[in-house]
């Protein structure tokens, strides 16, 4: 992580530094974000976003007629909407609204976001370095964790559904690894 600390600029008033914490499912992104937030606290104002808070309703990402891996990679989020209404304005806008997903209701509700004028923004999630979003990050940390280790972190009941992982999640992850090559594009790769 020493590479990361050396990359943090002294923020001038009104500047925001956007950090992506990318990694596949169960790689430890949330844990790293929590640790980073605690370490940055006191030096910078910090605001954290979890990209999975901004997925779309199930009807838009399941049973669409597309292959399951495609639904997960391309339809789980409204990628272009997030580009236009989140990523593009992160450095400019102090207040904005996002569609935040509520799992219990399977719907999105408006969330008002207020950012400090000067801060570090941490964004954690899978597929963050996709072409539509990569340019908006000032720094990206990629967590490299073997599939077997990540899968072992799932609940036992979830692990029994390995066929769904093969059709939906792992195929999408393989697509991401092969086409985007996130470990090569990241500023820092952590073996976890």
TrEMBL record:
Record's keyword terms, sorted: Kinase, Transferase
Gene Ontology molecular function: uridine kinase activity
CDD domains listed in its UniProt record: NK (cd02019)
SUPFAM superfamilies in alphabetical order: P-loop containing nucleoside triphosphate hydrolases (SSF52540)
This enzyme's EC code(s): 2.7.1.48
Keyword Flavoprotein carried by entry: no
NCBIfam families in the cross-refs: PRK07667.1
Identification of the protein by name: Uridine kinase
Organism: Halobacillus litoralis
The organism's taxonomic lineage, starting at the top: Bacteria, Bacillati, Bacillota, Bacilli, Bacillales
């Amino acid at each position: 992580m020493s590479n990361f600390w050396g990359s943090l600029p002294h923020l001038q008033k009104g500047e925001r530094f956007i950090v992506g914490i990318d990694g596949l499912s169960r790689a430890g992104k949330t844990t790293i974000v929590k640790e980073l937030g605690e370490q940055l606290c006191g030096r910078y104002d910090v605001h954290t976003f979890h990209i999975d808070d901004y997925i779309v309703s199930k009807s838009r990402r399941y049973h669409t007629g597309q292959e399951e891996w495609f639904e997960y990679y391309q339809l789980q989020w409204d990628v272009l909407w997030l580009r236009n209404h989140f990523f593009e304005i992160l450095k400019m806008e102090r207040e904005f609204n996002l569609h935040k997903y509520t799992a219990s209701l399977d719907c999105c509700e408006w969330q008002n976001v207020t950012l400090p004028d000067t801060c570090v923004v941490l964004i954690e999630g899978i597929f963050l370095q996709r072409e539509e979003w990569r340019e908006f990050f000032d720094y990206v940390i990629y967590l490299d964790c073997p599939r077997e280790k990540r899968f072992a972190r799932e609940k036992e009941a979830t692990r029994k559904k390995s066929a769904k992982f093969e059709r939906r999640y792992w195929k999408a992850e393989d697509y991401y690894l092969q086409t985007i090559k996130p470990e090569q594009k990241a500023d820092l790769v952590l073996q976890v």
